[in-house]
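Progress report, Aim 2. The chain analyzed during this reporting quarter is listed below.
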Amino acid sequence: MTSSIRKTCLGCLTGAILAMSQPQGALACEAHAGHAPQTATTKTATQGPVMAMDAWVPVAPPGVKAHAAYLVLMNHGAGLRAVTAVHSPQYASAAMHASQVKDGVNVMQHLAQVDLPAGSSVAFKPHGLHIMLMGPKKPMASGDKVELSLTLDDGSTVAVTAHVRKRQPAGPMNHDHMGHDHKGS
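Predicted structure tokens for the chain:
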């Protein structure tokens, strides 16, 4: 498909207009054009509307048997989609969880699926939604890559490569990399 497709990316902080059609049909707004999106592969040869960005796994101390993976999923389609399963060949098992604080205690809840509303994004991030990776088959070091396969509700999959890296120190969010002009009037 060589035609230019225009859609609205409501998941972007500024609601940027999608204006770029990548060679394989993946869509990215100007704010995410610098990222390497990974799109859903479907049962047919066409590309799906779900793409993953900014996937990473924090470096864990040696011997830790549970790791976490974080990413942003964007649904550029017109309908609701859902992630129903996750797999990594580098781990014994993988599952989606949500963390929250209840009565001062951090608790995790297993999720059977994560909904991806049309035209929006869902962030898997520290202290929130995340992918639990259990039983690493080998130690992971900074610079390694973790392969993930996310199964969608229609049976299609999103292949994702997450980069193992150190956690960034918490600080003010820098929006400069997004390519948006946030100057007030």
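Residues 87 and 149 are 5 Å apart (CA to CA). The longest strand covers residues 47-58. These observations will guide the mutagenesis work planned for the next reporting period.
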